[in-house]
Amino acid sequence: MIQNDQMSRKDFFHRLGNLTAGAAALSLFPWLESCSAQNEKLSQGEKARLGVIGTGSRGMFHLALLLQDPSARIVALCDDYAPHLEEAAALFPRARKYSDYRQLLDDKEVEGVIICTPLSLHAQMTMDAIHSGKHVFCEKAMAHTTESLDRMYNCWKESDRVLMIGQQRHFDPKYIKAMELVHGGAIGQVVGIRNYWYRNNDWRRPVPSPELERRINWRLYHEYSRGLMTELACHQLANGSWAMNGLQPEGVCGTGSILYWKDGREVFDNVSVVYQYPNGVHMTFDSIISNKHFGMGEQILGTEGTIDLVRGILYYEKSPAKSGIRQLLEKIEQGVLSNAAFAGTSWAIEDASADAGIRFAENVTVNDGASTVGAAGDGSAELMHAFCLSVISGKQPVRIVDEAYWATLLALRGDQASRERKYLTI
Predict the structure, then answer these.
(1) Is the distance from CB of 144 to CB of 409 less than 8 angstroms?
(2) Cα separation of 407 and 12, whole Å?
(3) pTM across the whole model
(4) Tens digits of per-residue pLDDT, 293-317?
């Protein structure tokens, strides 16, 4: 976590500013420039007066970040599940407590709201907040259906309120640096985008009493959630937009099933989805939650190299040259060659690139499919701070809502394609 005495508000974006000097990065992440400019102009004493709607696990995660952010002041909390509300109130005992979010929206002291509720509530709560004059941070994905997604987007577009969505990769330094490399030609022509997210758990949370099952485990039911696509894929699908310089897929096909966790859930426990771009590039997303061997992965594949976004490593297709005899000896030592191979077999194992890779992001550690970079982690702290800056200034970071819109749209269409098992145009 970032301690107040370690990093001032001005310094908070300093590291990002160093990474985004290139024209490629600023064209792909233009909101960073506007956030950095706001950061420079604001005085040290200003604070965003915030209310948090939804104080479950994700809400508490954001509250822990805001507790340490000098530009945030939590003035109101809301949850209709009392145990969650009391847990949050223990962190912010001076904040007013509400069980109905409409009452929080009527609170005149609240300037901006942070919405961390089930997906099915995102669009309506966001629109209600905008209509009440609040700036809004809403967790991803933006909406539960394409229809509510469009209503939410248009409501914001017609307003003068700030809207930001909880896709922290927008502010993750290693993703920013990676896309600078991609658009600087480091991996040649982009020919593929590969995303996967594997876990081995039932994705289920303990329920104190049966009547709370659907409220607490809302991610498992169609009425509230779109499952793996909106909860996991939505993060990764933005990679395609950035790698392809804003080009979006024209269609998607996919499949999914409930293979292992047959416990009454309605959403799939495994999915495989392929997006097709107009130029012929494909982007894939695969997720299984009954095997975690490969963890989480996000890669941009080029003709000359591969970028591992999660680990911050660039791999080249061709390793430093070795003599022919040395390569032959190494293959014999590894048992790759046999008498059959010398006899002219028609099949042999396809060797992967042997390049050890170059790390382009510092202090990256990977743990159970998650990664952190330096003190600020995965961009979540920077994202929360950027929202505070926007609440104080009233300035909307450019293009960031459009990026979130497309990530949500791709996730929703991918879910539809996997349920209908057919190719859908986007």
Answers:
(1) no
(2) 26
(3) 0.87
(4) 999 999 999 999 999 999 999 999 9
